[in-house]
Amino acid sequence: MLPSGNRMRRRDDFTLAVRRGRRAGRPNVVVHLLHPDEVPDRVGGGTAPPLVGFIVARTVGNAVVRNTARRRLRHLMRPHLDRLPAGSLLVVRANPSAGTARPDELAADLESALDRLLRPASKGRR
After folding, report:
1. Interhelix angle for 103-118 vs 63-77, to 10°?
2. Which of 26, 56, 73, 88 shows the smallest number of beta carbons within 10 Å?
3. Which CATH number fits domain 4-118: 3.30.230.10, 3.40.1010.10, 1.20.1560.10, 3.40.1260.10?
4. What does the pLDDT average to over 69-92?
């Protein structure tokens, strides 16, 4: 379970992270990260804890499957909180295959996506 202070709750935060954040897609998840210097009017700015939210659509499965996938993703995300910049917004969106994926597959996809988003941006493509 994620600590209460790290849970994203506001619709505006989800929208901002998904629309303006960097994105890394993997077979089971898509991760959106918005760095703190790109977050307008965030109370606490760079000293606020990173916020993490999860989007698990109906395409993943019925309510039981969706909630299982969400719980697994929350559990897998907790050890990575200290890697996120303070004040950042992170959204983890589950793809339809996440409902049937094994926990180790979800872990590998999440870690791979986070690694890509947290390394410095390359100068090649924009």
Report:
1. 50
2. 26
3. 3.30.230.10
4. 95
